[in-house]
Amino acid sequence: xxxxxxxxxxxxxxxxxxxxxxxxxxxxxxxxxxxxxxxxxxxxxxxxxxxxxxxxxxxxxxxxxxxxxxxxxxxxxxxxxxxxxxxxxxxxxxxxxxxxxxxxxxxxxxxxxxxxxxxxxxxxxxxxxxxxxxxxxxxxxxxxxxxxxxxxxxxxxxxxxxxxxxxxxxxxxxxxxxxxxxxxxxxxxxxxxxxxxxxxxxxxxxxxxxxxxxxxxxxxxxxxxxxxxxxxxxxxxxxxxxxxxxxxxxxxxxxxxxxxxxxxxxxxxxxxxxxxxxxxxxxxxxxxxxxxxxxxxxxxxxxxxxxxxxxxxxxxxxxxxxxxxxxxxxxxxxxxxxxxxxxxxxxxxxxxxxxxxxxxxxx
Length: 363
Ligand code: NAI
Ligand code: MG
Prior knowledge:
The protein is of the alpha/beta class and 363 residues long.
């Protein structure tokens, strides 16, 4: 087939393999219904179990191997026994940085039927896209640990904000806001971080001049955290730094249905390298192997894969199907108050996709 998308699957640890299996099921179903494209999945055994056996999180030439793929579908990495900074830096961050995936896209959208802990908030009022800087900033890994272990030891963790890095993420966000005809909010902290965030705010203002059609707002991160909870409708497209984005998207996940629903995409916009799609939850060792993990976040990230390949209509169909099972409330995992298994939920989502298509054809 002409349109064959080659996907590298790094299922990883804990519930990673369990939830990805369901996402793959859904992608296969979509390809089958569409008929004009197909997926080829190649599995890589990397992660903490691999580390326990081989002393490394991935093969030495791992990035080289991954280069040949159109996208990477990642479950979760991390397991008790392997320090989290090793599993994170030697796999996830290696891929994000090595493939210049400088955009992290996290939709925070309250789907129909999704649980929301906020009072007096309607579904339409929680609908934003957070665009997080994903390559430098506070997570650049720059710093030093001097006089380690001595009474006068000193630790430095340096934020790195380059003009190229700040400008490209802000520009990406403006383009997205323009495309969607939505407002753009920058979240920073120029009062306390008197170099990095003053610079961020300056670049935001500079780039804004090129987009007079885009309504802009700028908030300090602490105030933004409050508004996420109190008035989430203030936010449509949001752009922010690596650290702030990490934190506020977990807050966002909490107001939009919980970790079981939150997905994130790591995008290399130039498409020189593969982009990577993942549920944002971790490996959940406490429930691993029990077939009760919620696969909806992994399935949502599968819908982001469809968007990325230009099949946005199918991406929406997948979200519709997730909504349908949440509204019906019959087939849900325990974290959403149900009694179904991971597999049953995945199968229900895949099945619904067909019924939507049939409705379309008939009506
Ligand atoms: P976690 O997200 O794995 O779990 C937090 C809580 O949420 C647990 O009670 C878990 O059972 C529950 N949970 C998470 N995903 C769920 C799902 N799909 N369905 C039902 N319940 C779910 O975060 P935690 O416990 O802080 O980290 C566990 C390990 O995962 C650590 O090693 C950590 O480093 C790693 N991790 C990896 C990430 C990644 O690969 N992107 C992201 C976050 C953590
Ligand atoms: Mg996080």
